[in-house]
Protein 1
Amino acid sequence: MSSIISNETAPPAGTAHAHHGSGPLVWAAIVASTCLLLLVFQKVLWLVVPFLLALILYYFLYPPVRTLIYRGMSRDGAASLVTALFLALVAVAGIALVPRLASQMTQWQDTVARYVQGGMQLLDGSLRSLEGHWPTLARARLADTVAERLTHGAGSITDHLEPVALGIMAWTPSLLLAPFLAFFFLRDGRRFKRFLSAAVPNAFFEKTLFLLHEIDRTARAYFQGLINLTILDTVTLAAGLWLLGIPGPLALGLICAVLAWIPYVGSILGGLLVVLVAATDFPGDPAMAYWAIGLFGVVRLLDDFLYMPMTIGKSLELHPLVTVLMIFVGGAVAGISGLMLVLPVLGVVMVIGETFGVIVTDQRLMARHRHALALSREHASRDL
Amino acid sequence: MLTLFRQRTTSPRLERLHGLSLFVNLTPAELEIVDGLLHERSYLEGEVIFDEGEEGQAIYIIAAGEVLISRQEEIEADHAAQPGVNEHGAAYPRRRQGDTGLVARLGPGTFFGELALLDNSPRSAQARAATPCKLIVFFRDDFVSLLDTHARIASKISRQLACHLGARMRSMALAMSAHQHLV
């Protein structure tokens, strides 16, 4: 019988299926496909963003669904119950928080204005200090010019609230898709996998099963890597801010770490936030803001060149250099959405590309497929 | 709410799975979990299911039809033992498996390629459909995740697998001793 026969014998000619590593052609196709997908995704962000959120939610809700299935509940029932509980929890949190947040809205507006003012004062003070050291800058009246442009260009906070509110209203319907998508992933994920694999010819079936498993593993590893990266960023920033004596280090660190999900742009926003807090809470000590900028720079470098390759890059089994290069390529091809999507898209395309490369270059598998097709034709025309 | 956890009635499909030796000890609830992991494939007579030397990814259970298990080197040995069959010596063309090189002919309810569940070593023989057949496929990584998430189910399957392998080893040992006795 197949199983108890020794595996030490060498495979016969024509049946040896050595797994060759992906060549430059396959890799070029992987990078090109990733760029093309990023361009397409940029056009359908209204669908891609809720889809991504739904995937995160799926990986978050899957463990309780699995536990319920093991306890004897059907998959449909478990998926429905867990999604309903999650939505109920969100609704309760919303009901509890929204009135409180609404009552503090006016106070928020004042707080934001105070921090913006603090940042403007820091910038003004720094520029005047530079003018004191550099007569050329003083003659150009740099501080006055920048202050004037910021006053005219920035406008009031109310001016900025309108587009933000409109943006939230425009995105809300598509973001509401996320929990529904997550529910269907939880309920029908396996059916979808079986549906896909059923369409694959017998000769490629095992390889396709492996491919689907690898895609699932890659996506899971990516989102787990993202969570690990957020924890590392939060801890490092919080420790640094705490050492500097800036108030609310943990909350600030967490907000900056979540903003860092958008590579570079999110980091700049996070840095700006920390500097504004430092400049406003320590108005007489501009050095504190400079220290905060320095700390943020160090954390960004750690994040981009150490933490990200260690967490997300490692989870995708990508070389750190490829991770960094692909982030730049993603940004150049599709802007902010490209920066956010490049690594998960590359991870999935990489698995598909490598498996496809293995199948196409395996002459035995292709021959088996042709043989199966010939048998099928023969079978179909047997009694004609 | 409690009705969600009540004992389920078994469907004909689950009844059929329960009849397979690998899943004979599973409860209906456990069978339903396993059923979610299984794939069903149809093969035509003469179609190769997997090749000798190929990396094994799954175990196959025969739901209907018959499957031939054969080894290439035994075919070659048979060729060498028959002068004039192939005068060119080494380069034998791959042949459809008949009686030559045949290791076993398996029928409904039996399974093959089970070592793929345990490791990813190359397949030690070729499997080919002897008649049009329907196979149930259990992917290795699904079995591995079952070990993590549903250890009870996985241990029941593993036990059946171990019993099956033990029986085969005993029959092989008996066959070898009988052969030595004759020599």
Note: Residues 200-369 of chain A form one domain.
Protein 2
Amino acid sequence: MVAIQTNLPTHVSHAKSSSMTDKIDHTQLSAWLKEVADARCKIAFTHLFKFFAPKIQRIARSKFPNEAQSHEVVQDTMSNVWRKAHLFDSDKGAATTWVYTIMRNVTFDILRKIKSNREDNLSDDIWPIAESAAAEEQPYEDHLENKQLLRVIEALPETQQEVVKGFYLMEMSQEQLANHLNLPLGTIKSRLRLALAKLKVHLGEDND
Amino acid sequence: MIKHHPKFELLEAFVNGDLPASLSIAITIHADMCPLCQQKILQLTEQVAEQSFEEDVISLDNLDNLDSSSHFDISIDDDLESDALFDSMISNITFSEDVAEVVKPTDKSVTFKDKTYVLPTVLSNIGFGKTANVGKLSRSRLQLNEDEIHTNLLHINAGGGVPAHTHKGFELTVLLDGSFTDHEGEYNKGDFIMLDGTFTHTPVSENGCLCYTVANDALHFTQGINKLLNPIGSFIY
């Protein structure tokens, strides 16, 4: 089913992924993305380009009647890969998934421009690139340090805990928290202040 | 508890980017409240991505396995042309040292009849029309510009409802807040309710609710005297 909509030839759509999956070198793709992010490495980018661009072009040709638009998809997608490489997190998913979402978003915005005459670029709101959906489920599993921090946070009173977790771990703004918890902004601010004072005592001054 | 979800085909079209903005937004709103669908979307995206980008590999390595009706026709001329084009794209793109900043949109809020609601983040950058009121119903149109597909925020005040109606097209409702009932049962925050033209219902909201609605045709009231209300059908649509 998926195959039909992505224009994978129907002949091979029944072949199972296990054998095919091995053919994409995910480790290599991730490594190149990291080099682009860390060192703005043009060689790594060229490798990524040579891998993705022809495939993006082929997929775009199936969605747009004219070649200029499919080139626009390639250009915009790869340009976003160059500019957003630092947002890619290999712990959260494969490089192919990340590039796919960028390509899908670029395509969506161009199609919307054509059909609805709107340049509101809604795709990044519909499918946020920066935050993976998994991030919300396990916002603080990454580091050992965080585990220790988390234990200390969990020793806080419930009301202070939710404010600290929301602000630092889920990166909500104080305003968002106030809305979310249905509390005045002042209350959020004072709870945060109280909680931080306690955390400092528990963790020691040099730990902040 | 969320009981009503988008069906698989809809999630699939969403992941492929094939749905109009109105329906894509509806699924984003639902998935933000529904870990189950969120998980499905993640998996689907992974699969589709994998399949999209392995196509080349298949075409080169498995050529022998494809029968003669295969619609692969790799043209060497095309490839050469692309090479020059691609090289110039690479140098254009890498010429810029700019790095994209991610700006998180600030949430919008909306007030209907003295009640203020914080809207889902996905609606942050969308314009809304003026609120129109009829009895216990209020609606504000989203400026998505999708021809016959109209998208609204629909607020039903406590004790209000929409008289029995049906549609020629589809009617999608995502409950943003509150609850309503019809003869099928109760719907709660996060529920994703897709109805087609064959369906007749009479939603009533005891304590009031706020809905995100998408429809591609006016509501059509079906019962006796209620037919007089058909202008309300166009109002809601």
Note: Chain B is about 30% helix and 25% strand.
